Amino acid sequence: MNDPKRSHPTEEPGMNPRVIDESVKRIEDDMYFSSDSIKVRLARIEEKLENVVTKEDLEANMMGLKTELIAHTNSTFRWTIGLYMVGAGVLLTVLKLT
Question: How far apart are the first and last CA of the chain?
């Protein structure tokens, strides 16, 4: 009835050795016989690297933004002071006329 020799499963869990051998053969073929596919892959990687921002680019952009922010803040401050001075002049003129 029960065969004591067959108490364990015949295959261990994990990848089948045949599948591993096929994967290794495919990788070896890609590496040694298909230089075009490697060149195509490298070209794709290089295309993506052209669109990657470097640290220097980020620093330059941050410095540009900082300069624009300072210029805008100075301009806003000058306009605010100017408007207060004009308002104070108008208020003094109205007070002198009344």
Answer: 121
Tokens encoding 71: 């210029």
Provide the 8-state DSSP code for 11: S
Q: Which amino acid is at 59?
A: E
- What is the full per-residue pLDDT of the chain (98 aa) written as tens digits? 455 555 555 555 567 888 888 888 887 777 666 666 777 778 888 888 877 788 898 999 999 999 999 999 999 999 999 999 999 999 999 999 88
Q: Residue 31 in contact with residue 38, Cβ under 8 Å? A: yes
**Cα atoms in the Cβ-side hemisphere of radius 13 Å centred on 28:** 6
Q: Amino acid letter at 15?
A: M
Spatial contact of 37 and 30, defined as CB atoms under 8 Å apart: yes
Global pTM reads 0.43
